[in-house]
Protein: Spectinomycin 9-adenylyltransferase
Organism: Oceanobacillus bengalensis
Amino acid sequence: MRDFIYNLQKGVTGIITDDLLGFYLHGSLAMGGFNPKSSDIDILVITNSSMKMEDKRNLAQFFLHQSNSPYPIEISFLHIEQLRNWQHPCPYDFHYSEFWRERYESDLLKGTYNYFSEDLHVDTDLAAHITIINHRGICIDGEPIKKVFPSVPKSDYLSAIISDYQECIENIEEDPIYCSLNLIRVFWYLKEGVISSKQEAGIWGLKTLPHELEITIRKVVNSYADRKDTYSFEKDELILLRNYISEKVQELLRVLN
């Protein structure tokens, strides 16, 4: 893992040369909840100035080779002025994740610029990523976290995590492990202000949530930890967990509003 991160940092630095301000790790790997078979490597890179078009194309080519070899990468590039003049959703210069793979492959193959345009791009999730970096991120290279990143308003962070939370409310039957852990994570934050990994949220849920939810949560936690046991999930147990958390989250949101 150290070699993988080092090679990413070295490759990025080689492309953007002397414009790098910092290279920062966030997400499950930074918080100690990384699952080698399901987690992304989550990174933010901050530059001194806006990125050149050719640098974006070179970065896309680099990540197409590096991502999924063996870990998927999710990485965003911002220049420092986009942080100093904070707004939500936050603008960014360049982003790569596996969701963008086919688009970048197509542009590079055809020599087009459909997904390398200079149009302004914004991402609601950056409020969550930067909040996690401020609380639990790791500086791999460059300026210290406190010197680079602004304090994100709680309302912006909440906006970011609630968006994902709503999708999980709708999709818990299709993706029970991710969605269950994410619902618990949002509930824990609203209840106690804790910024956690999915793994940490699952363990907290086992200790804290009602006894009738324990079997379901334990199956989710064990599945996420990649134990050898294979679990099936009944619709009723997932709906019970979803409805309990949804009711509690709505109560907490009413108090905040």
Notes: The chain has two domains: 2-151, 155-256.
